[in-house]
Structure formats: structure tokens, C-alpha cells
Amino acid sequence: MGFKMGIVGLPNVGKSTLFNALTKTAAAQAANFPFCTIEPNVGDVAVPDARLDQLAMIAGSKQIIPTRMTFVDIAGLVKGASKGEGLGNQFLANIREVDAIAHVLRCFEDSDVTHVENRIDPVSDTETIETELMLADIESIEKRLTGLVRKLKGGDKEAVQQDRLLRMALELLEEGKAARHAMVDDEDRRAWKALQLLTTKPILYVCNVDEASAASGNDFSARVEAMAADQGAASVVISARIEEEISQLEPDEAGMFLEEMGLHEAGLDRLIRAGYALLHLETYFTVGPKEARAWTIPQGTLAPKAAGVIHGDFERGFIRAETIGFDDFVTLGGEQGAKEAGKMRVEGKTYMVKDGDVMHFLFNT
User: Fold this and answer.
1) Are 160 and 145 in contact (CB under 8 A)?
2) Do the Cβ atoms of 47 and 68 come closer than 8 Å?
3) Residue 189: what are its φ and ψ, rounded to 5°?
4) CB of 104 within 8 A of CB of 14?
5) CA distances from 188 to 112, 168, 182, 199, 318 (A)
6) The overall pTM is greater than 0.85
7) What are the tens digits of pLDDT across the range 19-64?
8) How far apart are CA 117 and CA 65, in angstroms?
9) How far apart are CA 169 and CA 151, in angstroms?
């Protein structure tokens, strides 16, 4: 299981440039005018994880298969998008389909690149986007509440729950707060998620800075970081221009280039780690002579459900999971060494899989 992250922002903030870098393609037209991205571009990228290479080397795996992450480049929103301005309705529908939002903010000055509102103010830009999403949610909720009236009169339990949750969201939105700030009980979580409100999507602020600020950020990105901290949200600093250059280089050249720029790693790595944290995801591994493979699961996943990510039959017929911690696998030289040292554990249906676990599932067909 990977996840789908939508890249959003005002026009000309660097969304398509970032998308090109992330997917190592030129599929998104990064042109200097609004709405150059008419249809959402979708790119599947491998999630970099140095642990997978280590495991493959130890096990002599012939093939390395990383887990995947999907990015959706969504065309630039503008004021009035909730009312259909620009290509607003289409863009908002695209956002409903993603798991999380990477909100790209322009944190650089460049007279050659126009700003849709003729000023550089990333914090104000976040308010523009958030306002449009909130207005769209309010309109959607009001329509849905009207549609529930008949079912409520009939005593429909599901309608009663939806009505209660929609009204809770509406109250927050009318106070100028995103629906993601709602306190939702465990028994309501599935129904809450099914509402697909735009402002319930987890959000990550991506500060697109100039090349000189890629290593330490700048005053613009510092303001965004402070805003994100106040919201309990996350932010990352990236130079989309640098990432695009790196994406065209061979690995060795890319490493040298990063060093010259004073960077320890590519922005893609930071962005994916932040995305994983945002959605509370983790990785486990399956390793053998044929292949070493990474699998993504939500934190707190039990062993049978984790097995089901590989194949539904693994979950249905789950018997047990032979499990080795990543550090033990590496330190003890692989599966055999871990077995001999008593570090291979046999885990049952109630085992909560941990990040980095190396697993082999036994199941009935």
C-alpha cells in the first residue's frame, strides 16, 4: 500500500516543476502562465529506502522492489475556485481523490516568474487556498444536509450519524477552522472519512525556495514553518529547481551536486518522510534470493492485515509470521544468523507490525 498525495497551490508557485523532479519526467508542462496544468498529472515514484539495499546485499537478492508513492499534480487554484473561478470545480474534485495534500508555497523572489496576485506572501497564499477549500466544504455540507431530511424523518441510523458529523464540521468551518481540527470518536472515524471533506485532508506545507536557500531556508520559509507549527502541521524546505536538476543526473553525479549545494539528501527523501509521518505510515520488508521488497502499511497494523497487502489469501489464511527486526537482520548477517542467535520471532494474529520488520508469512490456501 502506497498513498496518493496531491500537489496543490496557486498558479506559478513551482508545483509542476516539483512534480517533474519527483517523477523524473517532463509530463507536467511547467510554463509561466496560470492553468498550464489542465488535467491532473499522475506520477508513480519509488520510495527511497537505504535499508532495502542493505537487506538485498545481505540476502543476495536478484531484484530490489521498493514501495511506491503516487503524486498528483493538480492545476493551480485561485480566489473564487469554490465558485468555479479558473477551473475551480474540476480542481476541487481532483483534491477529493487524494489521501493528503502537499501545499506548495512560493518562497522565492523572481521578477521573471509572475505571481497571480503580484506579491510574494506564502502565508497569505495558504489562507487563499484554505479559504477556497473551506467554502467548497460549506457548500457541499449544506447540500448534503438538505438531502438527509427525508432519511432523518424515517429514523435512518446512518443518516443520523452523517447529519451529526456534517453539523460538527459545519460549525468548525463557520468559525473559520478547517474540518481536520474536529475531535472525532473512534466509532465515527470510518463515517467521518467517508464524508470526503476537502479540509479533513492532512496537509504538508512545501516551501519552494531559491537555490541559494535550499540548505537553510529563508525568511519566507521561516514564516511558513512558524505558521505550520502553530497549526500542528508539518513543513519542508525544497528548491524545486534544484530537485529538477538532480532528477536528470546519474546517482553519482547527483551525490556530488548535492554536496556542492551543501545538501545532505535530495528533497524527495525529505518530502516522502514527511508524507509518511503525516499519514502515520511505516514500512516492512520481505527478503529472499529472488527479491527484496518493501511494503507500506499504516502504523498499528496487525500481522494478518499486513500480510494482506501482499495478497488477500495471505490475510484470509494467515497462520503466523516469522519476524526479524531490521537491526538484527543486518547485525547477524541475515536470516540464518538471526535464527541461530534466537532473534527470529514467531508472531501470531495479534502482533502489531513494527517499522523495519523483515517478515515471512505462513498461511493456509
Assistant:
1) no
2) yes
3) -60, -45
4) yes
5) 49, 12, 11, 17, 29
6) no
7) 888 877 434 434 444 434 445 578 888 888 889 999 999 999 999 9
8) 44
9) 20
